[in-house]
Amino acid sequence: MESTSIECPNCGSSIKLENNEYSQILSQISDKEVEKRVSNEVEIIEDAIERQNNQKIEHISTKHQQEIKFLEEKIENLTTFKLKQSTKYIGESLENYLLNKFKELQTLGAFLNATFKKDNKLVKRIKGDFIFTDYDEDGNEIVKVMIEAKNQGETGKKKNSDYFKTLNENKTNKNCHYSLLTSTLEPEIEIYNKGVIPIREYKNMHFSRPDQTFTFLSFISDLRKEVLKEKRENNKNQIMDIVNFEDNLHEWQDSMNDKTNKIIDLHVGILNDKKKQKANLEAEIDKTEKVLNHLKSLKKKATEMTTKRIANDSPGIKKIFKTLNEDKRRIQLKDINSFPT
Q1: 5 by DSSP, 3-state: which?
Q2: Contacts by 319-326 with C-beta closer than 8 Å and gap 24+?
Q3: What's phi and psi for 117, nearest 5 deg?
């Protein structure tokens, strides 16, 4: 078989390989070289695609950031304009604005079962501005909200947060579900210009600009209606569950009573049969005992019966036995006399 010599480039020694082995080695080296080239090509293509995608993402991101900035500026301008318009429309008295707005909304068919009244009662020497209360068709209270109204130029304080603590106390004192500070103070603070916002430091407290006051009251009233409706449904379902449970319990009790009564009747019958069997058995035992006693008595009498007793009652028999006894003694004496000395 033909062979091929391979010389080591380091030590100079050579190795002879058969041609088929040499071909296999060349094939392996060729495959690895191809895999390496393919891997390099794939890596180059992936890098090019990634750079291209990054460029597209950067372009889209820049475009969107410009659009977002434009929209934010537009929203800010609209908010500022809206606040200025609200403040201008409100005029000198925010409280009068709120009272008139409520009456207007009622005229249009909103808040038909609600009241919006001044809070005139001092509790712990403090009071709020308004109390909004809404009722259902049956006159049951749905929601009660303590409202504090503050307008620029009508108060010495400049910050909304200055009123949170007192507002919360008024809510508690008047047993209200929620509290709301509606204010035109701090128009430059962006968070206060975003509509109705919750005040996290206090439970169920919210802030709004004046034009959002009744939007909040309408929302919170509808929310409470849904909550109470769901609560009533749950109570109704619970009552029905209790009724159904009691019905099922009574049905189960009746069924168990019927089954128990049948089992009791069955065992009472068995017990009565056993008692009858016992009475019959005791009667049989009594009879058997009497028979046994009678047999024992007969046995005793039979055992005690002798010839003497029989002969005593019959003179003829007595005479025969006497003769027999005398003959028996004579025979015995004869036998003794005949015995050799």
Answers
A1: strand
A2: none
A3: -120, 155
CA proximity to 184, closest of 100, 86, 92 = 86
Asked if residue 207 lies in contact with residue 183, where contact means CB atoms within 8 angstroms, the answer is: yes
Residue 135, burial from CB neighbour count under 10 angstroms (0-12, 13-18, 19+): middle
Sequence-ordered list of residues with C-beta below 8 angstroms from that of 259, at least 6 positions apart, any chain = none
pLDDT band at 88 (very low <50, low <70, confident <90, very high): very low
pLDDT at 312 over 60: yes
Residue 265: C-alpha distances to residues 113, 259, 260, 271, 272 (Å): 66, 10, 8, 10, 10
CA distance 272 to 278: 10
Residue 214 near residue 101 (C-beta atoms within 8 A): yes
Q: How far is it, in rounded angstroms, from Cα 315 to Cα 319? A: 6
Contact, 2 vs 18, CB < 8 A?
yes
DSSP string for 161-187: GGGHHHHHHHHHHTT-SEEEEEE---T
DSSP annotation of 123 reads B
Q: Say how many C-beta atoms besides its own lie within 10 A of residue 4's C-beta.
A: 14
Instruction: Return the DSSP state at 160.
Output: G
Coil/strand/helix, residue 128 = coil
Query: Residue 64: pLDDT band by 50, 70, 90 thresholds?
Result: confident
Closest among 141, 88, 76 to 114, alpha carbons compared = 141
Structure tokens given for 139: 């006159």
* Domain spans in the chain, listed from the N-terminal domain onward: 28-90, 94-229, 306-337
pLDDT of residue 158: 81
Rg of the chain on CA atoms, in Å = 61
Whether residue 339 has pLDDT greater than 70: no
324, 327, 333, 338 alpha-carbon torsion, rounded to 10°: -130
Give the model's pLDDT for residue 102: 96
